[in-house]
Write a structure and sequence with these properties.
The protein is mostly helical. The protein is built from eight helices and three strands. The protein starts with 9 loop residues before the first helix and ends in a 12-residue tail after the last strand.
């Protein structure tokens, strides 16, 4: 059973709250646009409808992943469950790419058709899109606040996705206005193609990041450089080597070997390592840090693995 974050994890609660808000907004927009599509027959609204439906699926999956990823480590998952976020993101990217293909094919068929269908109830469609823009903008503002407070990558990705939704919605308004004012129904198909292209680009970005995480790609070079800066100037640390990182969801796993004075006591060496770990966690709260301590100048044993 998946448990919601408790009061001991306020960062987790904020991330879950952002996930709930995302699902709620996506549900309202999907229902509104479904009704508007039936009234107008607009491909621009169809594009934003499919996008909102995908948003609903992705936001729901993201919410489940956020909650599940915060489960503590157990016997079967010693490093926690944060990879659930990446699995959800990879599935989301595939869904977005498929839906973008459907929209692109429909738009091309309409553009190449000898007769362009007339749009109906443009004012109604414009009203729905205006509501969509307002709700989406409000959600993005809230998500940005949560990202600044928690650093949650799932919420950050969701926020970027909704931010990208604003352009197709604005394009939909343009298409409906052009149809109502000048009878330019082709604009609707052009906007549909543009929306499909944006969705494909977004899907590629989401999928690449999720794949990189699942393949244990290293953390952002800026984060690695920051960890190196902390370790290189830390009191008692004579040097460091074998700094390895990987990402999983919103977590960063760090393994670092530090070189210490071999003449000091084990307790003193432990205190330095523990202090360094706290310093790294203070700079990167989402990290999971393991510090290995070596005597300065120690040579690798010939029988030690080179991995």
């Amino acid at each position: 059973m998946i448990k919601l974050p408790t009061s001991s994890n306020p960062r987790g609660r904020m991330a879950v709250a952002a996930g709930v808000a995302s699902v709620s907004v996506a549900l309202v927009l999907t229902l509104l646009k479904l009704w508007a599509l039936g009234e107008t027959g607009s491909l621009a609204i169809a594009a934003t409808l499919v996008d909102s439906a995908m948003d609903l699926l992705m936001s729901t999956g993201g919410l489940v992943a956020i909650v599940y990823s915060q489960r503590p480590a157990d016997d079967d998952h010693a490093f926690g469950h944060s990879s659930a976020e990446d699995l959800a993101a990879l599935a989301q990217s595939i869904l977005v790419a498929v839906s973008a293909g459907v929209i692109a094919v429909a738009a091309l068929r309409r553009l190449l058709s000898a007769e362009q269908p007339e749009l109906q109830s443009e004012g109604l469609g414009a009203m729905v899109l205006a509501i969509s823009i307002a709700l989406t903008a409000g959600l993005v503002v809230w998500q940005r606040i949560v990202v600044r407070a928690t650093g949650n990558r799932v919420v950050a990705a969701d926020s970027l996705h909704y931010l990208g939704d604003l352009l197709p919605a604005l394009g939909g308004l343009l298409a409906l206005w052009a149809s109502a004012a000048y009878g330019l129904t082709q604009v609707d198909s052009v906007v549909g193609l543009g929306a499909a292209a944006l969705m494909l680009v977004g899907a590629a970005g989401i999928g690449r990041k999720a794949f990189d995480a699942l393949m244990d790609r290293r953390a952002d070079p800026k984060i690695i450089a920051g960890i190196e800066a902390i370790a290189s100037g830390f009191p008692g640390v004579r040097g460091f080597h074998d700094l390895k990182t990987r990402t999983a969801g919103s977590r960063i796993f760090v393994n670092i070997h530090i070189e210490l004075d071999g003449e000091q006591s084990l307790s003193e060496a432990h205190a330095i390592g523990a202090a360094l770990r706290r310093a790294i966690l203070h700079a990167y709260p989402e990290a999971d840090v393991i510090v290995h301590k070596d005597p300065v100048g120690v040579e690798r044993h010939p029988d030690d693995p080179r991995g």
